[in-house]
Write a structure and sequence with these properties.
Helix 3 packs antiparallel against helix 4. It is built from 6 helices and 5 strands. It is α+β, with helices and mostly antiparallel strands and 287 residues long. The C terminus is likely disordered. Helix 5 links the parallel strand 1 and strand 2. It is 57% helix and 12% strand. The protein has a 5-stranded mixed beta sheet, covered by helices on one side.
């Protein structure tokens, strides 16, 4: 669906007015002798033309003045609403999950899966709230905040975290929405590891991509769990991969899923520097 801003419409009207006014003057020059008085209809037409041109000019000046300010106001309003939703999620749903966990007084073999599910829900909720409310910092900053949330859960599950963040040029890392989507992609990959892989080791890595274009980055989440199985027709399916693929699209990155021999899984995303939309065409491939 074609969407035109008010400024675009005003520019089109100004160009159309300029063309018709030039044609109007050209017609007067050719068809009305200089000594002959203009008919009253032409005089009124000229007056209306001037008034219309002045109105378009005033509207264009107002649009040029207000357009950046209105855009900033919309961004601020969206950010404020996101933070409000994050607070509601934390206060309402978070308290309900905590109450449910407190109902399990003495975790046993039968209640352990329920407790782990509630802990996973609480972790996902906290990470979601943090991502929604945090609009500052680059991708490395957001991953560092993610690590603080993950470490206690990984320690409790007996999963060793190998952290490798090699960022020689942090100013070229994505920020804003791109960083948020990539961080959420890592979160979903880790969630899959905790829920399905039965892994004892988890590696999260961010470094320059040596095999890609100059300035590309590689983000990788790898575990040593049971792995995944793929088919020739459909490849890897399920376990939130569709969500990760959509996030990769929005972040302008490629997405690769690899589980050689069904032992361990590596989720990797390759993306361009801060000013780029991503490598290649910007649409990810899922392999």
């Amino acid at each position: 669906m074609l969407h035109l801003s008010h400024l675009s419409v005003l520019i089109f009207c100004a160009v159309a007015w300029g063309l018709q006014f030039a044609l109007f003057l050209l017609g007067l020059y050719h068809f009305v002798p200089g000594e002959q008085a203009w008919p009253w209809a032409l005089r009124w037409a000229m007056l209306v033309d001037f008034v219309l041109g002045a109105a378009i000019l005033v509207l264009m000046v107002r649009a040029l003045y207000w357009h950046p300010r209105s855009k900033a106001q919309v961004v601020a309003a969206v950010r404020k609403e996101r933070e409000r939703i994050a607070r509601e999620l934390h206060d309402q749903i978070g308290s309900q999950i905590v109450n449910a966990m407190m109902l399990i007084d003495a975790p046993s073999q039968h209640t352990q899966p329920v407790m782990q599910t509630l802990e996973q829900c609480m972790l996902d909720l906290r990470l979601l709230v943090e991502v929604m409310s945090d609009h500052k910092g680059n991708l490395a900053d957001k991953l560092a905040s993610l690590r603080q949330r993950l470490q206690p859960v990984l320690d409790k599950r007996g999963v060793q975290l190998l952290w490798n963040i090699d960022v020689p040029e942090p100013e070229s890392l994505p920020r804003g929405n791109r960083a948020r989507e990539l961080c959420r992609l890592v979160q979903e990959a880790v969630s899959n590891v905790l829920q399905h892989s039965r892994a004892t080791q988890l590696r999260i890595e961010l470094r320059p991509h040596s095999e890609g274009r100059q300035g590309d980055w590689l983000l990788c989440v790898q575990d040593n769990g049971v792995g995944m199985h793929s088919t020739v027709r459909t490849g890897y399916v399920g376990r939130g991969l569709a969500h990760m693929k959509r996030r990769a699209i929005r972040a302008g990155s490629t997405l690769d899923i690899d589980s050689p021999g069904g032992v361990g899984t590596c989720v990797s995303a390759v993306f361009g520097p801060r000013e780029d939309n991503g490598p290649g065409s910007g649409f990810p491939t899922l392999s």
